[in-house]
Fold this sequence. Notes:
The protein is α+β, with helices and mostly antiparallel strands. It has a domain at 1-49: Pemi-like Protein 1, Chain: D, CATH 2.10.260. It has three helices and two strands, in the order αββαα. It has helices spanning 16-22, 49-52, 66-79, and strands at residues 30-34, 40-44. A two-stranded antiparallel sheet has the order 1-2. The longest helix is centred in the last third of the chain and has 14 residues, at 66-79. The N and C termini lie far apart (56 Å).
Amino acid sequence: MVQAxxxxxxxxxxxxxxxxxxxxxxxxxxxFVIDENGEVKVISLNVAVESLSGILHRSxxxxxxxxxMEQAIAQGASDWT
Length: 81
């Protein structure tokens, strides 16, 4: 078990083993989640852009051109007016 100490300002230094495991570095963002059992989980919000590649792809989906994207944005914007 890895332990840390709470300072008078309510701050905690995340131990190196945990920082390494979560791939945290200076400026990294983390989220604290309380699950249904009352346990607190620390979740790294660092997501490499490369890991997002293809997550929205659907089989048979045609790639959109920049013009297609701009047209869809304009259509969406006009739906709000």
